[in-house]
């Protein structure tokens, strides 16, 4: 499917429910002659943000908590985790790209830097970050106008194989309140204008590319004898609140069933994770009292665990993450994640090898020097290889590989 397109059409699709504060839905109609390039769906929107606020990194994705994908009215992707969409987007970005690349190429999606505003102590640093997070924004009175374009962060959507002819797709986003996507920098929180409600989205539409070529027509003609298959990585997110008033914590069954290809996990304070007025949502700083981490599968420690941490320096968690995301010894990765940056966003990682069991239950043991002073939430990203098939009648089947 690498020959030149002989037809290429751009179409605008407008959401059915833009006036709703709870959901945003796009429906992409079937076409008998053209193939939808689902990995090039670009959703445009503008948001006016009061001067007492700045956006959190991942501003576009953090407007939404859950994304559902339907093919021919058959649900292929959904979640019960409130914040799964923007957390999956966060991992998709930082698991695949260098942070400097994310803060430049994905500035159009609201990734402005790799800082966490509420971690900054000096006033001058905070003022500089406020400026960086208002890039080329038009000002309308007391409001800054943000123009954003984002690509739906879902494994099926990001897969580069087009949809078959006569196939419909529907994307449904559940909205989140402003506390998940903004940081309040004003002086009177009681009168915060965006408090407790989703931000208003305007000028919203999806720009889609429909194409055809001789090789595409030849490839998809085989659907009459064999379903078209799509293989991709799917990220699911789950969370667990840590028990309070204890320094030795064992979390049973954090994940069960088929063993994922890769597992990521991180700690965050529960208050910010639930949507805080003056804290960023994706704040995964290394907990300085954490001394030991052990991940087990069916009672056996996974490769590289238990992981001891000494001198409040997470050398081994950093090493494992860089190894899993293939940045440990890479001459093509450019500027790599520094240890100091890792401490501000400490994500643990494990890639399951062929020697480990393919099914079972995962437990996690966390040992702290002292009881954590704030309630903590564990965020878990599971990456599975998935296969979807679409047959000539439009029926869809999904299988976890």
Automatic annotation (TrEMBL):
It comes from the Eukaryota. This is Oidioi.mRNA.OKI2018_I69.chr1.g2576.t1.cds. It comes from Oikopleura dioica. The lineage of its organism: Eukaryota, Metazoa, Chordata, Tunicata, Appendicularia.
